[in-house]
Amino acid sequence: MKILIVEDEKELLRSMVTYLQRENYYCDTATSFLDGRSKMESFEYDCVLLDISLPDGNGLQILKDLRDNHKVEGVIIISAKDSLDDKVAGLNLGADDYLSKPFHLSELSARISAVIRRKKFAGNTVLVFDDLVIDLLAKTINVKNETVELTRKEYELMLYLVSNKNRVISKNAIAESLSGDAAHLYDNFDFIYAHMKNLKRKLAAAGCPDYIKSVYGMGYKFAVS
Ligand code: CA
């Protein structure tokens, strides 16, 4: 899952990135209002962490622009002020959660995970497709009660497909989700084919039906009825 962190306090930003990367999130960062707004216009994220007081503007305006453009990213406001007015304004503008500084990184991570579950998986912690069971908390995939050993990339790929179930996802979107905003550095999609091939092979070997369909010239789809 891919996260954008908009935060101008460099030390705090660094500690959030380090912690969340260890939790297997891909972190993109912005340290100003303009940078944050432009990244949100250009990329899609699974969750955005938004500081309110930025040197060149108010984070709440970024949230307002996001919702005005009907973007549905999960947004957690991170504010230095434990101000009721800011909290109410943020939630009324469509923020999904609010965290006052200082906070524990473990709490931040738990809240991110909860927002993503609500947004992407209707609040479920376990996804069941007949014999295929995905445990979002344990980060495991089981087929017929046996755990399928996946690499981090393969698990992320599977989650991305499932979070977009029955929708065709372009190779470009998959590349972006697997590699953060460095997607444009890849001039071909060989690395996606490799991960996809391995994922499909491992699922098939475990006896999982072929849910992941290639859509010629377009991309892939996790197809379930
Ligand atoms: Ca700030």
Strand content: 15-25%
Query: CATH homologous superfamily of the largest domain - what is it?
Result: Response regulator
Structural class: alpha/beta
Categorize the overall geometry: elongated
- Identify the CATH class of the largest domain: Alpha Beta
The major beta sheet can be summarized as: 5 strands, parallel
Indicate how many domains the architecture comprises: 2
Low-confidence runs (pLDDT<50, min 5 residues)?
none
Mean pLDDT: 91
DSSP summary: helix tally:
8
Instruction: Work out the number of β strands.
Output: 14
Attached small molecules:
calcium ion
Q: Name the helix and strand elements from N-terminus to C-terminus, one letter apiece.
A: EHEHEEEHEHEHEEEEHEHHEE
What percentage of residues falls in helices of 4 or more residues? 40-55%
CATH T-level fold name of the largest domain: Rossmann fold
Strand order of the largest sheet: 2-1-3-6-7
Cα-to-Cα separation, first versus last residue: 24 Å
Rg measurement, Å: 18 Å
What is the CATH architecture descriptor of the largest domain? 3-Layer(aba) Sandwich
